[in-house]
Amino acid sequence: MQKDQLFTRRRMLLAGAAALGAAGTAGIVVAAGGEETGRTAAAPVAGPQARQALKPSAFRLQPLTGDAPPRAVPRRLKVRDEPVLRISGGGRRMVLTFDDGPNPEYTPHILDTLAKYRVRAMFFVCGECVVENRELLARMADEGHVVGNHTWTHPLLTELDRHEIRSEMESTSDAIEDAYGQRPQWFRAPYGAWNRAAFQLGAQMGMEPMAWTVDTTDWMEPGTDTIVDRVESGAAPGVVVLSHDAGGDRTQTVRAIREWLPYLIDSGYHLTVPARRA
Ligand SMILES: [Zn+2]
C-alpha cells in the first residue's frame, strides 16, 4: 500500500513537472544574460535579427538560389567570460548532465532509468564516441534529451591553439547534427578548463558554455553510496549535476542514479533541460 502511495505521488510530481515545463521553459535559462531564450517578438533586439524582425518581407530581396539551408548558419551569441554554473528561473528545478559518452555499455542503462521516471537530461558527448554509437544519439533525440558538445577527443583546451580548438568543436557539432538531427546549442569544456577562445568559438557556433554546480565525483569511482550522497546532499533549486556515462568503469554511476533519481523526484524536484532556441 505504501508503494502505491509513493507511485501516485511520483505520478503527480511528473504531471506537475510536465505542466511546469510547458509554462516555464522560457524562464529556465540562463544564469547571466538569459535574453537569448526569454525574448519575445516585441522585445528589442540587435543585429541582423532586428532588421529581419522590423522588415518581415526582407527575405524576398534575397536571391532564391538556396546556397545553404538556414539551419546551417548558427546564430551568434554574446561571448561570455564564464560558463553557466546553475539554472535560473525559480522553482525546484535541477538539470542532470552526463559527460564523455556515449558508451554502449553504460549509456543505455542511464537512458533506461531516465525513461522509467520520464526524466530528460543533457548529454555532453565527444565526437569520437558519437561516430561509434550513432544509434545512442538517435535514441537521445527520440526520448527528448538534449545533446551538448564536449569536443572530439576530450583534450585540455588550454593547451591547444585556436585552430585546434575550432576543429575539435566544429567536427563534434557536425557529428552531433548527423546522428542526433540538430546542431548542439551547449558546449562544455573538458575538465572544466575554459579559455577565451573556447567562449568565442562557442558563441560563433551558436553554443552557450555550461559548467556544473555539483560534481558527483563518479569519475573517481568513490563507491555508489558516496555518489548517491553527493547528489542528495547537493540537491537545491537551480543545481546542475555532473555525472559521467563513459571514460572509465561507470558501474557505480549506473547503480547510483537508480537510487538518487527517485529520491530527487520524491523530494519534489523537477528534472528539466534548457529550452531550445528557435
Ligand atoms: Zn569530460
From TrEMBL:
CDD domains, A to Z: CE4_NodB_like_6s_7s
Positions in coiled-coil regions: none
Keywords from the named record: Hydrolase, Metal-binding, Signal
Ranges annotated as spanning the membrane: none
Molecular functions per Gene Ontology: hydrolase activity, acting on carbon-nitrogen (but not peptide) bonds; metal ion binding
Domain NodB homology: 92-272
Gene Ontology annotations of biological process type: carbohydrate metabolic process
Segment forming the signal sequence: 1-31
Record's keyword annotation contains Ribosomal protein: no
The UniProt record lists the keyword Signal: yes
A cellular-component GO term for this protein: membrane
PANTHER family (alphabetical): CHITIN DEACETYLASE 1-RELATED, GLYCOSYL TRANSFERASE-RELATED
Protein's recorded name: NodB homology domain-containing protein
Organism: Streptomyces capoamus
